[in-house]
Amino acid sequence: MRKSATSRVTILDVAKMAGVSPSTVSLVLNGKHDRMGEETRERVMDAVTKLGYSANHMARALKTGFVPTIGLVVPTVANPFWGEFARRVEHAALAQNYQVLLCNAERSPAREQLYVESMLARGIRGVILGSSPLSLQHISGAAKCGLQVVVFDRLMQGSEGLDFDSVRVDNVLGARLAITHLLELGHRRIGFVSGPLSSSSRKDRLEGYRSTLLSHGIEPDESLVWVANARPDNGEEEATEIGRLAAATQLRGPNPPTAFFAINDMTAIGIYAGVRDLGLRIPEDISVIGFDDINLCRSMNPPITTVRQPLEELMNSAVDLLIGRMEQKNLGPTTHVTLTPNLVLRGSTGPWRAR
Question: Does the domain at residues 171-309 carry the CATH identifier 3.40.50.2300?
Fold first, then answer.
């Protein structure tokens, strides 16, 4: 039974109800129960629930300077990729007895700054920044105050005077894999479709698109590069509309593309809609390649050929790096992990055919 609002539940109350020592309760609440019987942990958590006990994490942080929680800031929860990203982070963190606090920044540096500073104030000492904005100066203040940061999807080696650990996929290589595949199928007019180039990962994919064409003796046609003029903070719910509009516009042109490389899978799904609005078929009339390999790719008709990011390996690396910094097990120079993407061939790409 919960105590009244005027009677504060203490850790001693929880220990008494669970039949354990206060130190055991403390270990459970701090996630340090790897050597503890599951039945004991369940008794403690049952007592916590019944009594309505809520630890004062701010007081604990002021006393110890540490809470077993990591922050995760993603650019948008509207794209399923970031849901899978967060799930992988959570799995990796829980395996090390850490919890995860998820924040949705909507690609806004101001919101990112608000979140990281708020987490720091609450005793959270480490954040995975799941975005790759062109500048990270907005979190430099929190970093100077002791916040440990691991950056996803961009290389951080002293740029802007900041030196964070980072994990990323080789986005240039990912684009190269996609464009090379289309060239091998005979396509020469390949469209590039993206939202605003407000992140380093998007700029890297555009670089990979252009450099691969050049390496095959093809001068990139800038009329085939479609970059939406939407605000960077519009969110991934706009990605499908960007893809639809790009396909509808470019395919009505006098010399249309025969294939599209989309900045991500949600944009590729939008391209599907634009292609079908015009009565065309994938891949018979138009080939399409995405990037990320979200689960929806398998459900599309036809399933989407895409560049897969090795999310499990990426997120295990990110969590290991961050916890190593937070627990001061890693005091060496910053670490930068770059993993290799791979092309997943499905039904959305086929040989070039004259129309």
Answer: yes
